[in-house]
Design goal:
CATH architecture of the largest domain: Roll
Strand order of the largest sheet: 14-11-12-13-26-25-24-18-22
Strand content: 35-45%
CATH class of the largest domain: Alpha Beta
Largest sheet: 9 strands, antiparallel
CATH topology of the largest domain: DNA Polymerase III, Chain A, domain 2
Number of domains: 3
Shape: elongated
Helix content: 10-25%
CATH superfamily of the largest domain: DNA Polymerase III, subunit A, domain 2
């Protein structure tokens, strides 16, 4: 293989696909990136047997071929090369020669034969969605994905498409996030996408991204973002019947400025840490929300005035879970719906139902 390529294009491609590379694998080739040079482009791929990422770059190809090189070493070399033009050449011994200006490297590569094939699958459905929209939908729900490997189905989000509406649902047992938007698609389907895959999709979608194409198979999914393809396995299993977990009754309702309540909860959170987990106590009464927190390091109190409709209620929350639910709204004001001190609180927009964030309360001590 013998090619010439722009350093900035190569560095960006290698940086992105390296996130799909195994950091430690029993298959040495999976700790590398696969470079293929055919036609007028080179393809650069990373794969860890769960998620694969591929992109194409324009290049001058003098000799076709394929090589696997260490992702970490190759990325560092390309990032520090002095000139914009990079020449890469390989020989029969899999030695890779990298030249840029006066800088020259020789590194040991591996045969592409040792690199596992990225999954291929038969597409059953296909949807096209605005890039900014899918980015926001993922960003506003991915925080609620579980990291408990004992229940793999909840380490991903449910994507549900029905009657031209896409819903993304994430749940971890302590909170739930639902985001929905209308989409121009006649597809009716549902599948569970791993959280890691969604995080990679988020990193690839830029502000100017127009469309993202999602190709769905029986066991795999592919996101096509600009010049990148992200392919991932889907998580198999039965997802929670999320509709039945949303409280149907409402005993107390409050419409509050999002920034004000976030600031108040943040002030209470100063007394909590990773080691200290005490609830933030919230009392809704007399057109006020009174906040308090008592921990081993001290106590804090705060109050914000806001109309309270319905019953007075006292309820406690994990400060992180409550902040996550509030910060991942996209409105200046939110409606908080409570059905007693032991029932999950619902956070929705004041108008419409584009999102529902649900937070399970913590039991409060009598003090």
């Amino acid at each position: 293989m013998k090619i010439s390529v722009l350093r900035t294009d190569l560095a960006e491609a290698v940086l992105n696909v390296s996130r799909a590379v195994s950091t430690k694998s029993s298959i040495p080739a999976l700790e590398g990136i696969l470079i293929k040079a055919y036609g007028e482009n080179i393809s650069v791929s990373g794969y860890d047997l769960e998620i694969g990422m591929t992109t194409n770059i324009e290049a001058t190809i003098q000799q076709q071929g394929e090589i696997v090189v260490s992702a970490k070493l190759f990325s560092e070399i390309v990032r520090k090369l002095p000139e914009e033009i990079v020449c890469i050449e390989t020989d029969d011994r899999m030695i890779t020669y990298i030249t840029s200006g006066q800088a020259e490297y020789q590194i040991v590569g591996m045969s592409s034969v040792e690199y596992p094939d990225l999954p291929t699958f038969e597409e059953t459905d296909n949807i096209e969605i605005d890039g900014a929209l899918i980015r926001d939908m993922i960003k506003q729900t991915v925080y609620a994905i579980s990291d408990n490997k004992e229940k793999p189905i909840y380490t991903g989000s449910l994507f549900e498409i029905e009657d031209k509406v896409l819903k993304i649902v994430a749940v971890d047992g302590y909170r739930m996030a639902i985001r929905k938007e209308e989409v121009d698609s006649d597809v009716n389907t549902h599948f569970v996408v791993p959280g890691k895959t969604q995080q990679e999709v988020l990193k690839l979608i830029t502000d100017g991204e127009e469309k993202v194409i999602i190709s769905i198979g029986q066991r795999h999914i592919m996101f096509k973002i600009n010049n990148y393809s992200v392919i991932s396995r889907l998580i198999e299993g039965t997802f929670l019947d999320y509709k039945s977990t949303i409280p149907k009754e409402s005993k107390t309702e409050v419409v509050v400025n999002t920034r004000k309540i976030v600031s108040a909860v943040e002030r209470m959170s100063l007394l909590n840490s990773d080691k200290i987990k005490t609830p933030v106590r919230c009392v809704f009464e007399n057109d006020e929300i009174k906040f308090s927190c008592i921990s081993a390091v001290g106590k804090a109190n705060d109050t914000i005035r806001v109309p309270v409709i319905g019953d007075n209620v006292e309820i406690g929350f994990n400060n992180k879970y409550l902040l996550d639910a509030l910060r991942n709204t996209d409105t200046d004001e939110v409606k908080m719906i409570i059905n007693g001190g032991l029932s999950p609180m619902i956070i929705t927009p004041v108008k419409g139902d584009s999102f529902i964030n649900l937070v399970v309360p913590m039991r409060l001590s009598n003090g």
